[in-house]
Write a structure and sequence with these properties.
By secondary structure, the protein is an alpha/beta fold. It is 31% helix and 25% strand. The protein has an eight-stranded mixed beta sheet with strand order 2-11-14-12-15-20-18-19, sandwiched between helices. Strands 4-3-10-6-7-8-9-5 form an eight-stranded mixed beta sheet, sandwiched between helices. A two-stranded antiparallel ribbon has the order 1-13. Bound molecules: zinc ion.
């Protein structure tokens, strides 16, 4: 969770929400339906640490512990990284994160560079680039469900605190319209949504990522059928912000679990009586934005290099996307920079502006701006989403382990796959055994280098939600990730380039 000012704001929000709920607890209001809480993390997250605990990290016999890999040390950096999101939230904005083009990402980049420098990494640069297109950002908004005396004495307007507009949404003035429940996202449109705000429901098997194309497509179908706006009720525990999906033309808002459940209950009890909502949104198409990448070098014995990449940007706290990856990248930078002997190949550490903000792709701009240096790379290793507790949705619970990562090796090189599976077994790094060539996420921008790209990534239920907080990250998992990646990097450093990129292999 956030600390300092951020924490007091969150605490205040909880207190206000509790007071609202208490005053609205008139048993007759809203057809005797309890009003939803404010923004709320899944209560299951409270089980982390007690009683749900990931296995302690065990160093294999004969190995020496590396102080920079201690879980508590890496977690301290994770807290610092998330602190840049908290600082943005503390300014009172409704939409926060380490957002490329805004001071929160700049601050994260400057901090990352300072950490690399004090670790002894050479030639550290913060590189600034221009956004290639305008960037949509929601500034303020309100989703207000309008009370009516017909709903029962004591009914007062309800503001849905989990609501977040989807990318591209725009409202001039306000939308006042009745709500209609349109059923499951992905099903054909079966109700009359003309002139109404259509609510579609989804209960993702993992997280927003798993339902993205379904929700985007059926949002378009509802708009085409005449809806004036769409609510995507993403049914998860708690009442989280979910920032994902997109809208073209008509505005759409994502709703968290409790807000959606409230609307479903009220619409069911209202029968033929209309339930109206009032939507406002002040968004901007920001131009002239600039984002930052950080690059630093640990010189090796040869000019061949290995790139170790982590994206700095995030929506909301982004502890698992990608604070954990950034923190582990720093641990590795400290490890290699302090070594008495030079590594066999040069290591290039990158903290980049990421891929969340259209027009500000960090990796693409990094490659464009550093081509001669990056042409020395034999492999790009991406640290992304490395150590979150495993959250299950069947039913919702936290398991005493880390999310299994989807390992991608772009050239499906068996030498690299063998090194990954051996290192994973050595340290208890969790992954899905189906390794394939797919490397979604931050590695796309590195494709022009034409060398092996490797990562282990997951997208669990907390993906792109306000529940992606420090408390959801496994401390022994951070340690497992650091040792796992260290061994993998060591294997690549020691290997001839032809073994990393066999001539016949795909890139
Ligand atoms: Zn990510």
């Amino acid at each position: 969770m956030a600390r300092g000012i951020g924490f007091s704001l969150k605490l205040a929000a909880v207190v206000i929400a509790a007071a609202t709920a208490a005053s609205a607890a008139t048993p007759t209001a809203w057809f005797a339906t309890a009003t939803p809480p404010g923004l709320q993390n899944p209560p299951q997250l409270a089980s982390i640490g007690n009683p749900v605990r990931a296995p302690a990290f065990k160093l294999p016999a004969g190995q020496t512990a590396e102080p920079e890999f201690a879980g508590s040390r890496i977690q301290r950096d994770l807290r610092a990284i998330v602190g840049f999101s908290d600082a943005m939230e503390a300014t009172g904005v409704q939409f926060w994160g380490r957002i490329s083009g805004y001071p929160s990402e700049t601050a994260a980049a400057n901090w990352f560079a300072a950490q690399l420098r004090s670790a002894g990494v050479k030639s550290v640069e913060v590189q600034t680039f221009d956004a290639a297109q305008p960037f949509w950002r929601p500034k303020t908004w309100e989703v207000r469900i309008l009370a009516d005396p017909a709903f029962g004495p004591g009914s007062a307007d309800v503001i849905l605190r989990s609501a977040v507009p989807t990318s591209g949404s725009k409202i001039d003035g306000a939308i006042n319209a009745p709500l209609v429940f349109a059923g499951e996202a992905g099903d054909p449109v079966r109700v009359d949504v003309r002139g109404k705000i259509a609510i579609q429901h989804s209960r993702p098997t993992t997280g927003a990522y798993s339902d993205r194309s379904k929700i985007v497509q059926s949002t378009q179908a509802l708009e085409a059928a005449g809806a004036v706006a769409v609510f995507n009720w993403v049914e998860q525990e708690g009442n989280m912000h979910v920032f994902d999906f997109a809208s073209r033309g008509k505005p759409a808002f994502n709703l968290g679990g409790a807000d959606g459940a409230f609307l479903k209950a009220v619409l069911g009890k209202a029968g033929a009586r209309p339930v109206n909502a009032r939507l406002t949104l002040d968004s901007e198409m920001a131009t002239g934005l600039k984002a930052q990448n950080v690059i630093g070098v640990v010189p090796g014995l040869s000019t061949e290099s290995v790139i170790v990449n982590a994206h700095l940007d995030s929506w909301f706290d982004g502890a698992g996307d990608n604070g954990d990856g950034v923190a582990v990248a720093l641990a590795l930078a400290r490890h290699y920079a302090k070594a008495a002997a030079k590594p066999a190949k040069t290591l290039i550490f990158v903290g980049n502006a990421g891929h969340h903000s259209p027009g500000m792709n960090g990796a693409t701009n990094l490659v464009r701006m550093n081509r001669p240096l990056l042409n020395t790379a034999v492999l790009v290793l991406n640290l992304e989403h490395v150590a979150q507790y495993q959250v299950r949705t069947d039913p919702w619970r936290v398991d005493p382990t880390e999310e299994p990562k989807n390992v991608g090796v772009s050239n499906m090189n068996l030498f690299l796959i063998d090194k990954i599976t051996a290192a994973a077994a050595r340290y208890g790094y969790t992954y899905n055994t189906m390794i394939d060539a797919s490397v979604p996420g931050d590695l796309g921008g590195y494709a022009p280098l034409g060398v092996a790209r490797v990562q282990g990534i997951h997208s669990g239920p907390l993906y792109h939600t306000s529940g992606d907080v420090v408390g959801s990250i496994s401390v022994p998992g951070l340690e497992r990730a650091a040792y796992f990646y260290r061994d993998f990097i060591d294997a690549v450093l020691a290997a001839p380039a032809s073994l990393v990129n066999p001539p016949a292999a795909a890139k």
